[in-house]
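Below: protein 1.
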Amino acid sequence: MKHKITIALLCIASALQAQVKELSLKDALTFALENKAEAKKAKLEVENSNHKIAEVRAQALPQISLNGGLTYNPILQQNALPGEFFGGPEGSIILAPLGQKWTSNGTVSLSQNLFNQSVFTGLKAARSTREFYSINQQLTEEQLIEKVANSYYQVYVTQRKLAIAESNLESTKKVRDIIRGQYDNGLAKKIDLDRISVKVSNLEAARQQLTNAVQLQENTLKFFIGMPMEQEIKLPENSITVTAEAFITKAETGNRTEMALLKKQEQLLSFQKKAYQAEYFPVLSLSANYGYLGQGTKMPLGGKPNDVFWTDFSSIGLNLHIPVFSGFSTRSKVRQAEVSLKKVEEDIKDTELALNYQFENAKTQLNNSIINIQTQKENADLAKTVLENTKNNYVNGLASLTELLDAENALSEAQNNYTTAQLEYKLAEIQIIKSKGELKNLVN
């Protein structure tokens, strides 16, 4: 029975282990682009733009409609007609009903724009609209990549800090065991044992706080990539490497999707202005219809041939609409479009300034982080050496407990500073890659 329980527990542990998903940065970004709502909605907008183009194109195609009607006239209207036309005395009036009790008609109508400047402008704008949504999809994906990458490194760094806290806790527990043994043998004071016990308790509390922080940041990462919260994830080791490959001397704003989107928006507003101006142009269209009219004393759909009389009819016409005066409505819309164009021009200037500002800050942060990483790495190595020497001196009675605790605190602080410097470097590196317009390369 015990063997069965052991086997069952091993199977459960194996299943749980299999459920843990190792998540590299590339995996996280790919998952986000395939599953996050923002990415899916951006793709749907591109798909929907094709339908919008078809809607505009329809205005240039023939419009065909079928119409039908059935009317019953319980009381026919009587008209006063001169009696002499019907053989009556001069000046007499005859009241004659016009029409029939039942009337039915079926008509097919056709209309076709021959010249409509608004339609021509709309077709040009429709193609630009598709390009606009395509660029917007790219921008949405880049924003998602940036957000996921930042969150990913936040998780990794917090996990590293948790690992440091656990390592320091284990190290301090070993020191506590040594001091307890010395105390039991009368070689250490009770206050020293109490002080190291308090240090262990504080480290355990700090570890729990970091454990909670890791869980919260992992949940945030899962949310950003659209992953179910119940899915366990594991980040591979050595996710942060420090290189200077991303460094450039000047921001390449011409490659930025934000600028391309604003330029396309400017083009669309230009088309909008032209569409308003097209309202000054005449509109020429062709119309045609053909139909049948049935009249009689009985319902046409079921009446006998002698009770219903059917006749066909047709017409073809040209329609010309020439706008003369619209109360300055068109002029007002054109001027509003001009203001919108000026506003987007200011947005382009401001965005270019903001992109340069972000790049310069990121470049400065990158340079500082590279220097800081090297410094903090040396500090951490030195603090580790100092702690090892202090431990040996304490065991041999050559150092006080205060010196030992100070050495442990110095090592913990140096390790955390080194990890934080790595995070600052990666965040700055992401901004540099963004300024080059190469965020999508993180996925490839």
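Below: protein 2.
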Amino acid sequence: MTTDKPPAVSLGKSTPPPAVRASDADRDRVAEILREALAEGRLQADEHAERIEGVYSAKTVPELEKLIRDLPAGQRPSAPRPPTREEAARLPGPRNVVAVLGGADRQGSWRVGAQMNAIAVCGGVDIDLTEAIFDQPEVVINATAVCGGISIQVPENITLVCEGSGIMGSFDAREMVAADPAAPVVRLRGVAIWGAVEASAVEGKRVQNLRASDG
């Protein structure tokens, strides 16, 4: 008499889930960590340039984590809980203007917001604020130029402050203080490595309704 044997059960390894795709916020966070590492002397200029290029070519979160694994910020045991979709919708996130082997620009009548990230890697970024809507008292522009250039134009009746530095590159801004205390402040930060960041006022271009919001 024969008996039926139960079918064999496969005990093969399960397929691991795919790596999480990186968001703009993930890239901005890693780029800021690298900028601080450069300022602290943990990274050399050429290392920083190579890693910044890797940040904006990374497709997944693990690819980004590799770029900061040997830095203190990359040794943290756990990351804070990411915001929910509803929470993220209420957060005033920074604008990003990124040019990698190409060009990018912002111009016309647009809301600046409180923070911008301008990244030029072997490319060029042009930011024109002369017709922009300033609905925040201060705008911080984090500019990083690696073998590229970033040009920023501002109205002549605002305050412009430069806090950037050039490493084998140029980081120049014609600082000025507005006569009107209600005028917006544009604070330019960042680094130029084998590249250039420049900011200047455009004669005749003025913010007509200081700190005004049309909505």
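The mean pLDDT is 82.
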